[in-house]
Recover the amino acids of this structure.
């Protein structure tokens, strides 16, 4: 039985994406070892937060789906010059992610929701556990088999307890949460190290930045 079969799912009508239910409950947010040297300055102090139920996309928004919204989008500059319809949409700025989710009848998840979807009811450091396993995510290094972005859901062993795919690595994901004059991306990308791909790591960046490793997924209340 796959992890994704453990949580109820729905099909979002507009963009035909599979979404996974994240139950109402109390979830860990932030770094549980913030008081130790294992934590990074870009992480928050840990706390348990009660969230209402919501749905989140099982995978990052793909090139194929993003082209339904923005037909002129071209992934080739970000994918070694080759078409990759099942790769995540890359080089996306915050407003594009926001507008796509709105077009699809969804929204960007906030940071609390994103971490709940990535960690489930556990206190994991990465979606699969507390030990970094480079073969479980598309991050920096040769162990994962990809130099650039991978087609979404290429790492089933790296799924979260809810069955949400690629919450570590592949592309950084925009969330709704703002940080002063900037916005937050989560999860790390294909050039990220093990610390940047931790669930609790938060990268505060300019909302207009179109980094090749920036993508997104949507949520729905």
């Amino acid at each position: 039985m796959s992890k994704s079969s453990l949580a109820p799912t729905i099909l979002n009508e507009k963009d035909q994406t599979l979404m996974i239910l994240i139950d109402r409950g109390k979830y860990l947010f932030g770094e549980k070892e913030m008081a130790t040297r294992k934590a990074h300055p870009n992480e928050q102090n840990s706390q348990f937060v009660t969230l209402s139920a919501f749905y989140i996309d099982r995978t990052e928004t793909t090139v194929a789906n993003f082209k339904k919204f923005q037909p002129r989008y071209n992934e080739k500059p970000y994918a070694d010059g080759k078409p990759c319809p099942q790769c995540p949409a890359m080089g996306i700025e915050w407003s594009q992610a926001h507008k796509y989710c709105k077009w699809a009848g969804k929204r960007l998840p906030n940071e609390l929701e994103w971490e709940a979807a990535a960690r489930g009811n556990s206190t994991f450091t990465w979606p699969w556990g507390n030990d970094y396993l480079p073969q479980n995510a598309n991050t920096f290094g040769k162990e994962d088999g990809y130099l650039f972005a991978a087609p979404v859901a290429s790492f089933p062993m790296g799924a979260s307890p809810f069955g949400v795919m690629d919450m570590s690595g592949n592309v950084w994901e925009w969330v709704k949460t703002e940080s002063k004059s900037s916005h937050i991306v989560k999860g790390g990308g294909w050039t990220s190290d093990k610390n940047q791909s931790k669930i609790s790591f938060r990268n505060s960046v300019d909302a207009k930045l179109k980094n090749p490793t920036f993508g997104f997924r949507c949520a729905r209340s």
Residues 1-5 have pLDDT under 50 and may be disordered. Residues 86 and 158 are 18 Å apart (CA to CA). The first helix runs from residue 63 to 69. Residues 3-220 form a domain with the paralog of FGE (formylglycine-generating enzyme) fold (CATH 3.90.1580.10).
